[in-house]
Amino acid sequence: MDARIIKIGFGGGCHWCTEAVFQALHGVIKVEQGWIASFDAHSAFSEAVIVHYKEDDISLTTLIEVHLHTHKSSSKHSMRKKYRSAVYTFSGSQEEQAKSIISSFQPEFDHKLITEVHPFKLFRPSPEAIQNYYKKNPSKPFCTKYIDPKLSVIADQFQDQLKRIRHV
After folding, report:
1. Residue 116 — φ and ψ, nearest 5°?
2. Beta-bridge mates of residue 31
3. CATH assignment at residue 126
């Protein structure tokens, strides 16, 4: 029997970076790059991805841990409206689970985690030309400067979850 496929949203930095990080993980089936909006004070669109994954191959705990370690999850900066540090959930139970998981990782960080959990409301995909950015442009300066170090974190800390990275 096939594992159930679940989806969750992540925002933290540039969606090109976030997309490449999750595309590199075993168990991730699809990554949709674009902008996500939540509700109320978080209704403005922010760069993010929707990750579709097989829960038998990778856990929500591992996905959140990877996310926390591959963007500035404890850093407040002036661009947080565009680059909201967040997990976007698709159900109440997923929201509670995500909050608990983030709290459980706080001891691993020197500063307070600012990553928030918000209910998913809307998604706007990126233009086709910039989707799969790293796969299409691995040697571009942006990729070598910003994405390669994030992939190195995965290779060092999450080796068991790393796919072989193939460029298009």
Report:
1. -105, 160
2. 51
3. 3.30.1060.10
